[in-house]
Structure prediction request, 201 residues.
Amino acid sequence: MFADAKIVNLFPTAVWAHTLTPEDAETVNRKTLDAVETLKAESPARAAGEAWQTERRLHTQPEFLVIAGLIKDAAVGVLGKLQVEAGGVTLGGLWATVVPQGATGAPGGGAKAANPAASLSGVYLVTAPGGSDGVTFDDPKPGLNLEGATAVQPNAYTARNASIALKAGTLLVFPAWLSHTVSPGTAEGERVTLGFDITLG
Prediction:
């Protein structure tokens, strides 16, 4: 007979969520949308209903300096929570993605490939036409092999992915190796997100 039985959870995978103040979110989002509209107008025409993405160097443009600074601040905070030190925190890439209703979460769709040069990645939700949106993360561990058994109730131990709901003004930071997908556009209007990669050292 067992005297005790308990679950010991090992090796957590963390995602850090940061919510901007309403005032800062309004300012950042307005500047971002204006800049993105300008970039879209200057880019080659795209088919109606197709997702669109900028080059990955928006952090070099003055219109994105404020959000770039907030992203670096968030990354520094993450390092503090992890109790690690780094020689430097560098924003290695920043890009915008515009997803109209019915389009996939990014041009080409599918999970984001890991960036071997980055340590942290993330996404900032600029607009969410339906009020909120979500990011789905894939479990990086091999699946629990219970051959001959069927999961009768979904839970954290058998699920192969997990989703996090986002509202405009939310900034997520996560390990760069953690693959993720953004849901297709489901509401009227365009969803605008900023993606980024952080390198350390």
Q: What stands out?
A: DSSP finds two helices and nine strands in the chain. The two ends are 53 Å apart (CA to CA).
